[in-house]
Each structure stands twice: as C-alpha cells, then as structure tokens.
Amino acid sequence: MKPSTSLCADLDAAEPGGAVAPRPAAVPEAAVLTDPDGAILVFPAATATPAAVHFLITHSSGLVHAAMPSGLLDALRIPDQPVLPSEDSGTSFTVAVDAAIGIGTGISAIDRAHTLRVLADPRSAPDDLVRPGHVLPIRCAAEAYTGLRCWERAVAFVSSAGHPPVAVAARLVDEAGEPLDAASAVSFALWHGLALDPIGLPI
C-alpha cells in the first residue's frame, strides 16, 4: 500500500493529538531519505533479503541501486557508464552488475538480493560479478557523507549501523508512478514503520 490523501487522514486520526502508533518496520534497518528530487528508500545491502527487495521494487521505480564508495567500486572493477560530458546527469552511475553464480536471470527479487549481498561482502572479488546486470551501483564520494546528495547519505546511514558501506536504494513513487514529494514521503515512512531522514537534513 502506498500513502494517499486518505492514508494521511488515517495517520492523523490514529491517536489523540495526531500521534501515530508505532508500526513494525516493513523492512528492518530501512529508512526514507529525501532530497530535492523526491525520496529514496534505503537499507543495508549486506542484509538484503528477497522480501526487502520485493518491497523496494513494489514501491519504487523498480530501478535498484547500490550506493557505494568509489574505492570499493574500483576494487571490484566496476567501471562508470561512459557518457559524453554534455550528457552527464551527475548521478555517477556505473555499469550494472549481477552476481556471477547463485542466480537465474538476475532480475528476480531473489537474484537481486543475492547480488546486493555479494556487493557488500568484504570477501568479494571482481570475478564474483558479471557485467552488465540488473543492479545499478552509484559511485559515492569517499568523504562528505553528510552532504546534500542522498546517495552519500544512504552510505552514511548503513555504515553508522555497523554494516559494510553499501546501501540498497531506489526512488519511491506513488500509485501514479510519480516521485513522492516530502509530505508523501513522511506518510510512507510512518505507515511502514520506517526511519525518516536519519542524517538530520531538512525535508
């Protein structure tokens, strides 16, 4: 279920004074981060499960990212997508990857969860991945994790919880397929029992 106007009303009426009763988290250790482009759902790649990835796909554009430090991408030999300077979006996409073994076509929630865990595993080597695939890493700065880009903030979030610095992330959308705005992101996070902007930047 995605937040809607009626859902927001239900949340406001959940308890006297508009307080919302705590809900079990739909995805453990997940959070909703906001930025000028909308909102993303993030959680540690190291603990990615098929259920968590399925939830992510259901409520997002379906494009599953792995936000990762630049040095880790280099160590795994995951190159940037080649683009002309005039066509650079500034998002720092790399080529997409799949796990080299243990998956089928690579597109299922089971397969993508496995690929995400491989990306986060400190023991992984370049040969543990094939290119292209169905998980799209994003190259993140080695520093300034508290900057404005949501991708670095996602890495900071999972790292601060003691996980390897690889964050699963996807853009949240509403029932019409449009990116969630700030108000809808708050409703979504409350309804699904998720942390909201844990880095502390304004919504």
Automatic annotation (TrEMBL):
Entry function: Catalyzes the conversion of D-ribulose 5-phosphate to formate and 3,4-dihydroxy-2-butanone 4-phosphate.
Broad enzyme group: lyase
InterPro entries: DHBP_synth_RibB-like_a/b_dom (IPR017945), DHBP_synthase_RibB (IPR000422)
Keywords of this entry: Lyase, Metal-binding, Riboflavin biosynthesis
SUPFAM superfamilies recorded: YrdC/RibB
EC code: 4.1.99.12
Protein name as annotated: 3,4-dihydroxy-2-butanone-4-phosphate synthase
Lineage: Bacteria, Bacillati, Actinomycetota, Actinomycetes, Mycobacteriales
GO molecular function: 3,4-dihydroxy-2-butanone-4-phosphate synthase activity
Organism: Gordonia westfalica
